[in-house]
Design goal:
Layout (H helix, E strand, L loop, with lengths): L72 E6 L5 E2 L2 E2 L4 H5 L5 E3 L6 H9 L5 E6 L6 E14 L23 E16 H14 L7 H4 L5 E4 L1 H9 L7
Parallel strand pairs: 1-5
Antiparallel strand pairs: 1-8, 2-3, 4-7, 5-6, 6-7
The protein binds a DNA duplex (12 and 12 nucleotides) through loops.
Amino acid sequence: QRMPPKKRTRGTTAEHEEPAAKLAKKDDDEKDSSGKGAKGAPRRRGKPEAGNSGMQEDKGAAAAPAGKEVYCHWLMKSEPESRIEKGVDVKFGIEDLKALPKQTGCWDGVRNYQARNFMKDMKVGHEAFFYHSNCKEPGIAGLMKIVKEAYVDHTQFDKKDAHYDPSSKKDNPKWYMVDVQFDRMTKRFIPLSELKKYHQQHKSNGGVLKGLALFTRARLSVQPLSKEEFDFVLSLEDKEPI
DNA sequence: GCCAACGTTGGC
DNA sequence: GCCAACGTTGGC
């Protein structure tokens, strides 16, 4: 089941705000409600999902409205080891995704506005790293693809769910999820410790990973990578571990 | 299991 | 709107 719970917020909200990708900025967003609001939990989980397959596409969207950057690469965290939260085991590792029908699941349980907004920016076909967190060996285990764009996370209305959010109303849902499909394992597990070494190094020499969100926004469970960051990280699978 | 970092809550 | 207290994330 799921993961982090947390919840509570205040009331209402406005809604969907936009997706946004902000990035460099930080903040997040949401305008939701009144001011405060968000909760915080991130993470995810997955499960089969029913529908799907969607394909929506974006249309021209792309045009970058000046100002906001558009990302096509992501890193999503999930816990591969059992941990009971509100009576439910939140374990969901890459092997669990792989075991689902069509190797596809919904990334529910995200209860952080910024992470949610990043999910709303995701388009079908985008690639994401499956990151194992809060476990013996944290790091990137594999790759997955976005196969369905953001839609209402039903677990926010489920009292039995670890991420139930009593403040969210059916007619104005706060939380969204995407469907992801297992793509492949990385050729080798890329440990956080190794990424950290590159990050340190790059902070000194201006390398690609100097601003990697994994280190600059450590608690964000859904985070964007630039194409350069994504390619660099992926290239590590063909190199010797440092 | 500890605990630093940081996001959220809620009084004022 | 500020900010102290509190709760969560997630590495170690």
